[in-house]
Amino acid sequence: MEVNKLEGNRYDPFKAAFDSLDEFADMISQVLKCPITIEDANHRLLAYSTHDERTDPARISTIIGRRVPEKVINQLWKEGTIPALLKTKEPIRVKSMEDIGLGHRVAISIWKQDEVLGFIWALEIDRSLTNDDFTLLKNAADAVKNKLLQLQTRKNKKEERTQEFFWKLLTRHLNSPREIMEHFHSLQITPAKFFAVQVYKLPHNITNKEEQAISYLLKTTQRVKILLYAIDCNQLILLAAADYFDNPIPELDYFAKMFAAKLDDRFGIKEITPACSGIYEDYSKISKAYDEANAVLTVKSKFPKETKNIINYQKLGIYQLFDLLLEKRRNEEYENYSLKKLHEYDQKHNSNLLETLESFLNFDDNINDAAKDLNVHANTLAYRLKRISEIGDINFKDPNQKMMLYIDLKLNKYKGI
């Protein structure tokens, strides 16, 4: 194999042509005399040197799973290695982290202009790499970038096809179960037996930089399998597998909170509101699941305080029925007499009896909790409740009346009264 001279008397072995990334990984390993792995920008294993049995548990797990374990990625973010690799073209020395099975190693990013295409990791098993080794590692990263760019181009074309497929499902343009399964097969995606649709709403349209961060996090997360995803203005939409949990709803809720928190912590993407549909088995119901997730977002925007901890459609309770109830109210031209009287009293006397009533019902008749919420003494609240009962002709011992008051209060807020 022909080699080319560097400045002075050194040689650059990485200018020679190579047929595969595996061959190139072996070449780096032979030159630097240490085990090598090559990853894409999402920490999926592309190649690894095979002629060296020296290794550590993290590398073994990466080779077996074909991607870096999530616990290792998380630790490398916390410790600052990955943030540094996303900023510099210089090699970075990584200290041993025994709790995650990571030995001493040196890492370098593979850049194409201003974009990171992947990483080379060199394990320091018997010796530390020298400054000359660092120069060689930089040459290796430069030599392999075009190969990774080719892989990225093919990957982007496949992602375009998968996103087009997902939009057809979301917009009801693909309803036949047979056709849906054929599309999964052609895209080499194994459909889950059960699934849910998750929507993450941002306060602004998602930028290209934020889209790259989202894509990175989706492809490195391993807690929940993401089958498909799409971005629409200020929304990230996921098709999440729900096969692997005995109780999928709390697991999907936890994943949604964790995913939003990581986008904030690692990439500064803030004020994300997550929502999740119920669990489905029929893939022709994806559009219905999408509607459910959007219904959660609508309710959360109307009732941010009451629904702060609600993510899943199944936990919306009475809020699920608000559109139907509003339609019924419009058809009947109904108005709650008690709430009308209290509203008129508040308007005339500049009081807040309606707010007091809502807080009392929100806290399930608990005077102490409601008083704390309203920032008044419990005795003051008790007096207000007595006035509410008199003015609105309300019997607080009648559960049917209290339930109707609660629903009508929320319906008024839902329609913006």
TrEMBL record:
Designated name of the protein: PucR family transcriptional regulator
Q: What is the lineage of its organism?
A: Bacteria, Bacillati, Bacillota, Bacilli, Bacillales
Occurrences of domain PucR C-terminal helix-turn-helix (ranges)? 353-410
Transmembrane ranges? none
Specify the species. Answer: Neobacillus rhizophilus
By its UniProt entry, which InterPro entries does this protein fall under?
CdaR-like_regulators (IPR051448), CdaR_GGDEF (IPR041522), GAF-like_dom_sf (IPR029016), PucR_C-HTH_dom (IPR025736), PucR_C-HTH_sf (IPR042070)
Family according to the record: Belongs to the CdaR family.
- Report domain CdaR GGDEF-like positions: 176-299
